[in-house]
Specification:
Distance between the termini of chain B: 37 Å
Strand order of the largest sheet of chain B: 3-2-1-4-5
Distance between the termini of chain A: 54 Å
Mean pLDDT of chain A: 97
Radius of gyration of chain A: 23 Å
Structural class of chain A: alpha+beta
Largest sheet of chain B: 5 strands, antiparallel
Structural class of chain B: alpha+beta
CATH topology of the largest domain in chain A: Sulfite Reductase Hemoprotein, domain 1
Number of strands of chain A: 20
Number of domains of chain A: 4
Low-confidence stretches of chain A: none
Oligomer: heterodimer
Helix content of chain B: 10-25%
Helix content of chain A: 25-40%
Shape of chain B: globular
Largest interface: A-B, 46 and 30 residues
CATH class of the largest domain in chain A: Alpha Beta
Order of helices and strands of chain B: EEEHEEH
Number of helices of chain B: 2
């Protein structure tokens, strides 16, 4: 994985020193909260319901065992013993004290991490496919390109005060694990007819208050030119994106209002001016970064079979293991969704254990998924059982990937100052209702996503079943939506009907699922496919009568 | 309904409640505001010694019960982590006794 060079480290260290000075001035009341707030937000420090919350960037969701061990230590030293992995592949701490934040950031900087640009109207953490570099179905490793985007977007002077926040995702497979069509820019690596590597460019997707699926504005931009093309996109957005209305400030609104064709024309015009300026990184820099993502030392003699004689282990293998591009290896997803637990939460001890297991079994590297799980991407098949045994002992081997209990949920009103309703208790109640593993497996792939407000951090628009918590005359109420997807078949979920109480929405979800089981063509027909085939009416009938 | 003055401590971010003499971490120590409540809020905002001061409504009691779920969560802690409960009294909205992180 990428290691900081002297420039990366100097930038991050200088920012820690600068923020330490700013905090000291605030604590001496030399600057007001109004003056201080934008400074702390530039360092990822929010004030939430209970305390300060720190959002730490995990570039494209990749971190080393050493970094994960420090994240666990931070949870114990500066927080209350746990952290929350988010839908943007970051980690959040919920109980941070302002006076301790500079020391915390210094600990992060010592392992090449920071919280810069995890807030504010700038380019946020670049997200990517959690299987990158190991997936059997990718055309190339997208991480070097994501890393170059990280370097290009960090402290970019022209794009530090955009009309609104800006999110970029990069993937390299036809099977989309990074929800690229639901980002401000989505970049999909593919090969053109001549076999050259380039990006398909999606612009103007997003969820939130006004969800849109991003259109393609360019079918192919060579990898040698994608940075200048992104620069052109950002320039058009920075020039014409609305700054008068926060609810209409995202690039998706601009693309929608002027149309994809006109937006594309403007980007191409801008790029024609930029491209000759040689803003793209020289080939040597591409190669320097690529070299840092060289494949680990795979053992060519590793046996390409798995002993499935332990039935519990075999169930986990069936659900939490993905195909690796190298024979003898597998990609392991560690579920952070134990039934009745809090989606995405991990204790300090769990983080430290996973760091140890990464060092022992997966070349000391870990990934965070946008579904709030963790991944060990390079595990020998003949070591899977030993790994599973260690995970199982720490409640980290729930075999529920992409099943009904693998629920995405934002922190909701239990933590978040923006939320209107709680998300976590709803996720817990649904998971407990469907705790029986045989029942989960019978239902099959079913992605439930829950947001506690319209900002959609819980991706409810992309849920096969989406749940949105709203405030209705002072009471929590939950809207049910069906038919969303964040995968290559991206679609936006549609509201089914009137909302429910907390208890009522769990019953409604069960009625929807039972309706699906009764109308599916066969057990192999997924919920999403059945919904698309029959439409909303049978589900409305089941829920509302 | 009574009215309470609440804010977040600048140093720690903790939820704090106005006791009539100063600030407390304990909702049970909060005092009902009198007719001078709005003036007290204006003074607090101007002083900038605490973050996000606001007046909220609550039912009288020991401790008082904030009217909205948001303020009850601020007062008692997350409903999903019994171990992180802020006040001695059980959380009025806690149903699942999740004792630990996931």
């Amino acid at each position: 994985m990428y290691r900081y060079d002297q420039y990366d480290q100097a930038l991050v260290d200088a920012r820690v020193d600068e923020f330490r000075d700013q905090v000291e001035r605030r604590l001496r009341h030399e600057i007001t909260e109004d003056q201080f707030k934008p400074l702390r937000l530039m360092n990822g420090l929010y004030l939430q319901l209970h305390a300060y919350m720190l959002r730490v960037a995990i570039p494209y969701g990749t971190l080393s065992g050493t970094q994960m061990r420090i994240l666990g230590g931070i949870a114990r030293t500066y927080d209350r013993g746990y952290g929350h992995f988010t839908t943007r592949q970051n980690i959040q701490y919920n109980w941070i004290k302002l006076e301790q934040a500079p020391d915390l950031l210094a600990e992060l900087a010592a392992v090449e991490m920071h919280a810069i640009q995890t807030s504010g109207n700038c380019i946020r953490n670049i997200s990517s496919d959690q299987f990158a570099g190991s997936a059997a179905d990718e055309v190339a490793d997208p991480r070097p390109y994501a890393e170059l985007l990280r370097q290009w977007s960090s402290f970019h002077p022209e794009f530090s005060f955009l009309p609104r926040k800006f999110k970029i995702a990069v993937t390299a497979s036809d099977h989309d694990r990074a929800a690229v069509k639901l980002h401000d820019i989505g970049l999909q690596l593919h090969r053109n007819g001549a076999g050259e590597l380039g990006f398909r460019v999606f612009v103007g997707g997003g969820m939130g208050r006004t969800p849109f699926i991003a259109p393609v504005i360019r079918e192919f931009i060579p990898v040698s030119q994608y940075l200048s093309y992104c620069e052109a996109i950002l320039r058009v957005y920075n020039r014409y994106g609305r700054r008068d209305n926060i609810y209409k400030a995202r690039i998706k609104i601009l693309v929608h209002e002027i149309g994809a064709a006109e937006f594309t024309r403007q980007v191409e015009t801008e790029w024609a001016l930029l491209e000759p300026l040689a803003l793209d990184a020289p080939a040597a820099e591409y190669e320097r970064i690529k070299a840092q993502f060289a494949p680990p030392a795979y053992d060519a003699s590793a046996p390409d079979s798995i002993d499935r004689s332990d039935p519990d282990f075999a169930v986990w293998v069936d659900h939490n293991i993905a195909a690796h591009k190298v024979p003898g290896y597998a990609i392991v997803t560690i579920s952070l969704k134990p039934v009745g637990g809090i989606p995405g939460d991990a204790s300090a001890e769990q983080m430290e254990l996973i760091a140890d297991l990464a060092a022992k079994y997966s070349f000391d590297e870990i990934r965070v998924t946008h579904s709030q799980n963790l991944v060990l991407a390079d595990v020998r098949k003949d070591q899977l059982h030993a790994l599973w045994s260690a995970l199982n002992a720490a409640d980290l081997a729930t075999p529920n990937l992409d099943l009904v209990t693998d629920i995405i949920a934002c922190p909701g009103l239990d933590y978040c100052a923006l939320a209107n309703a709680r998300s976590i208790p709803v996720a817990q109640s649904i998971a407990l209702r469907f705790a029986n593993l045989d029942r989960q497996h019978d239902i099959g792939e079913l992605k439930i996503k829950i947001s506690g407000c319209i900002n959609a951090c819980g991706h409810h628009h992309a849920g096969h079943i989406g749940i949105l918590g709203v405030d209705r005359k002072g009471e929590e109420s939950y809207q049910l939506s069906l038919g969303g997807s964040g995968a290559e078949d991206t679609s936006l979920a549609k509201i089914l009907g009137p909302g429910f109480s907390e208890e009522g929405v769990v019953d409604a979800v069960e009625k929807v699922i039972e309706a699906y089981r009764s109308l599916r063509l066969n057990p192999e027909e997924r919920f999403l496919d059945a919904y698309r085939r029959v439409g909303a009416e049978p589900f409305k009938e089941a829920v509302y009568g | 309904m009574i009215r309470l003055l609440t804010a977040n401590d600048t140093l720690t971010g903790d939820v704090i409640w106005w006791t009539g003499k100063g600030w407390s971490l304990n909702l049970a120590a909060a005092v009902a505001l009198g007719a001078d409540g709005d003036a007290l809020l204006a003074e607090t905002v101007a002083a900038e010694n605490v973050n996000d001061p606001a007046i909220i409504e609550a039912e009288a009691g020991n401790p008082p019960r904030p009217r909205t779920m948001r303020e009850r969560i601020r007062g008692f802690g997350p409903t999903v982590r019994a171990d992180l409960a802020r006040a001695a009294a059980p959380h009025p909205d806690q149903k699942l006794a999740q004792a630990g992180a996931a």
